[in-house]
UniProtKB/TrEMBL annotation:
It comes from Sulfitobacter sediminilitoris. Residues 18-173 form the Flavin reductase like domain. This is Flavin reductase family protein. InterPro entries: Flavin_Rdtase-like_dom, Split_barrel_FMN-bd. GO terms for molecular function: FMN binding; oxidoreductase activity, acting on the CH-NH group of donors, NAD or NADP as acceptor. SUPFAM superfamilies: FMN-binding split barrel. The lineage of its organism: Bacteria, Pseudomonadati, Pseudomonadota, Alphaproteobacteria, Rhodobacterales. Pfam families: Flavin_Reduct.
Length: 201
């Protein structure tokens, strides 16, 4: 099969959503200037650099009560900071609940029953029991093709690691099983890993 996205795919569901997978989920927490906390999952999320450590997430929708984007991007524009929390399999239902479309001043932490804690380096809440939380200073918000497509880049300036995920000095993802997005309504979790050595190592 071959299709041009501009001409449509003719299928009951968009196959592009299932091609670039699995995708890690960034559970992005923000706080607006009035002090309202927000928590939302983004599956267009990844690390983009080692030194200094940097991450990105992309927002692709619009809320009626926010000007041309969603709460997360609007809050980051105001404050310049956000926290990227890593989602474990055990938190899948709470993550899903936090994706509900709520009023701008609603607290998704409370809505989804997620315990929050204060970040150390930025004025923002984080998911208290997340396997890892990355406190970020926004470096760029880039508008890309599409009506409401924005990519947010942030430099990681503070890192929280849950103690039970540390094994012999390494962050062990099998201790919490990262939740990842597939296509359609499908998800998966990382339960096993294997090692390969690069030719130049």
């Amino acid at each position: 099969m071959f299709y041009r996205p501009s001409e449509g795919h003719g299928l009951p569901h968009n196959p592009f959503n299932a091609i670039v997978t699995p995708r890690p989920i960034g559970w992005i927490s923000t706080r607006d200037v009035a002090g309202h906390d927000n928590l939302a999952p983004y599956s267009f999320f990844n690390g983009v650099a080692y030194v200094p450590p940097q991450v990105m997430f992309s927002s692709t929708g619009i809320k009626e009560d926010v000007d041309g984007t969603k709460d997360s991007v609007a809050n980051i524009r105001e404050t310049g900071v956000f926290c990227a929390n890593i989602v474990e399999y055990a938190a899948r239902d709470a993550m899903n609940a936090s994706s509900a479309t709520l009023p701008h001043d609603a607290d998704e932490f409370a809505h989804a029953g997620v315990e929050k804690a204060e970040c150390d380096t930025i004025n923002c809440a984080r998911v208290a029991n997340a396997p890892a939380s990355l406190e970020c200073r926004m470096t760029q918000i880039v508008k890309i093709e599409g009506e409401a497509n924005y990519v947010v880049f942030g430099e990681v300036i503070g890192v929280h690691l849950r103690d039970d995920c540390m094994v012999d000095g390494r962050f062990d993802v099998t201790r919490y099983e990262p939740l990842s997005r597939l296509g359609y309504r499908d998800y998966t979790r990382v339960r096993e890993v294997f090692e390969m050595t690069r030719p130049d190592d």
